[in-house]
Amino acid sequence: MTGASRGGRGSAAGRRAGRTAGRALQYLALAGYLVFLGFPLVWLASTALKTSREMARLDPTWIPLEPTLANFAAAFGEQDLVGAAQRSLVVALASAVLVVLIALPAAYALARFRSRLNRVALGWVLVSQVFPFILIIIPVFMILRTMGLVNTLAGLVVVHVTFCLPFVLWMLQGYVRGVPPVLEEAAAVDGAGRWRTVVSVVAPLLAPGVVAALMFGFISSWNEFLFALILLKDPQVQTLPLALVRFTGPEGVVRLGPLAAASLLATIPSLVFFTFIQGRLKGGMVSGAVKG
Amino acid sequence: MRRRILPLTAAALTGALALSACGTGADDGPVTLRFLSLAWQTESVEANERLVAEWNEANPDIRVEYVQGSWDNVNDQLMTGFEAGDPPDVIHNDSPALAGFAARGYLADLTGMIPEELKEDIRPEAWETATFGDQIVGVPFLQESQVFIANRELLEEADVRIPTPEDPWTWDEFAEASEELTDDDTYAVAWPLGNPVNRVLNLSLSYGGTFFEVDGEGRATARMGEPERAVLERIHDQIHTDRTADPGTVGMSGSDPLPAFFAEEYAMVQVGVYARQQVEEQAPEDFDWVTIPTPVGDTAEQGAASQTLSVAADSAHPEEAAEFISFFLNAENQVDLALGDWLLPTSQQAAAAPELNTEEDDWNVATASAQNLVVAPYLRVQGFDEWKNRVAQPALEEYFSGEIDIDELSERLETEGNDVLSRYH
């Protein structure tokens, strides 16, 4: 008995030590992953603060030897970065919110209503992703021109929503399937109608999925270049990716300093958006909701 | 969550609609022309915007809207505009792109719209780069020649003669000088051959290498004779036989080798003439550099394309657009445009301007090299882009990295190349 308890204490201590070692390895892996993710951003910041001469050194340093803000001055002086960022923000927010508003009820219907059309609809959603943008860009342009939406941010929002919708729909219907139907049945038993059930029971449980979809919609729209290039002609309506590309020339030659400075600034709104919204991006909200 | 989403959506949509109202643009004068410019260097953009402002001030009835484009995507952008019937009126591009657009009838024929003075001022060789059949579909204004930029100190230490436009190296002298300049720490030359096709084709003209035969009906056939092999073999020998060129730069593009050049790992680097700007901006302050003309073979000729201004065939105001181009590309303005991009003007009067013949930044060497530029033969070849991307690019990469020899390269450029070209006949 004594030996057994000694052995028990010993094995418990061993398990604790194992858990500690495992946790340490997890943190180590996490630290490595963070370095991997953070490297481009830190390098971008470092480059943005270097002179042209320092950028051309064969032995680059992390910390600029002669830090300068000249690249930021050039970037802001030559392009309307603030205006472009404002327009990008408006387009990205509008696209992200609209795509979720449209996709959420559709995703619910696809996940919950049993119909032969569902499988066809999901298949079509997948097939729609096969066509490359460049193939459909001319018809899209002509449709938008007919609607008077060329050269407007509203037109760009329509395009971004259209192209994000299939993936967001697919993503959200997976989240809806993850919500146990018995919760809706319980709400129905309590007298709630379909709409009330969706709004009060299902929607709150889908918060992580909605946040993920918002993030996807926002970042897709924030980074989108080709449609913006084709649709937005006037400098007064151009978005941030169009401003950034002005620092590149033929055959891949770039003005690296101003480009790095402008790109660094371009990452800030995304980081702020994610910081604001990432608290909602956690799973397990329905764990324990259904007994057994 | 719901409470946050609704106001957010309303705000974003309101903002989108409000800002979109700014995009329609006001039509202040009887005629408005949209000018898609690809200028991207600071000085060049400034020159473009200044010239547009000057024009607008002097011509209130023909207002030009300046729209900045991007070299990377301009042809996608243009194709959409052409197909949808909504292209810019005045289009900045480079001459290799013109052939395809001209063949589809997207570009206006400017033959009768260009004033004689401008027609005579631009070098005939440059006009050829923008003339297809009997149509002038663009006004050429900037060209790029190939040069070497060298570390003057290393050349002087090795007691190597520094060639000039009046007394350039031959390819043999270049090879000998390269031997002198190579030691344990330094290669004589860096050949950045990441995108080699246009460059080696342009350089091969010094031995008469044209790579294509085009018959009377415009059908092109790839051919690899001795003239086509000459420059290719000389570059290959420097890398793999003489070992005077760094094999590590074969995969590099453009100005990638400059940091190692500044660190004296190479004595010379082969670049386009515009790279002088990067050298001027990036080289250590005590770095003494010199521009060297490309070696001559049977002749000093180099193939070249041009940057051009064209008018869209769908433009409602082609005459006014041509009038604007004639102003924009007059000799005086070409000087500013050339200085802004560190390229060479096609205007003969501009090429004689003191600013473009000063020894500062070797403008005199650069400008002199323009005299040797002739139309690149591949500009006349229907299907060249596909020949280049599907056949020549990978084959030349393999050749310069030593994986295949000149015979196999020739075989592929001809056999596989002609399979591609035959589809365009």
TrEMBL record, chain A:
Transmembrane segment boundaries: 24-45, 89-110, 122-144, 150-172, 198-219, 256-277
One biological process term in Gene Ontology: transmembrane transport
Location of this chain's protein in the cell: Cell membrane
SUPFAM superfamilies xref list: MetI-like (SSF161098)
Keywords on record: Cell membrane, Membrane, Transmembrane, Transmembrane helix, Transport
Protein's UniProt name: Sugar ABC transporter permease
CDD domains: TM_PBP2
Predominant localisation class: membrane
InterPro entries: BP-dep_ABC_trans_perm, MetI-like, MetI-like_sf
Superkingdom, natural source: Bacteria
PANTHER family, per the entry: INNER MEMBRANE ABC TRANSPORTER PERMEASE PROTEIN YCJP, MALTOSE TRANSPORT SYSTEM PERMEASE-RELATED
UniProt keyword Transmembrane helix present: yes
Organism field: Marinitenerispora sediminis
UniProt key word rRNA processing: no
Membrane-protein topology: Multi-pass membrane protein
Pfam family, one: BPD_transp_1
Cellular component, GO, one term: plasma membrane
All copies of domain ABC transmembrane type-1, residue ranges: 85-277
Lineage: Bacteria, Bacillati, Actinomycetota, Actinomycetes, Streptosporangiales
Family: Belongs to the binding-protein-dependent transport system permease family.
From TrEMBL, chain B:
Residue ranges that the Swiss-Prot or TrEMBL entry lists as coiled coil: none
Alphabetic keyword roster: Signal
InterPro entries in the record: Bact_solute-bd_prot1, SBP
Signal peptide bounds: 1-26
Pfam families for the chain: SBP_bac_1 (PF01547)
Transmembrane segments: none
Name recorded for this polypeptide: Sugar ABC transporter substrate-binding protein
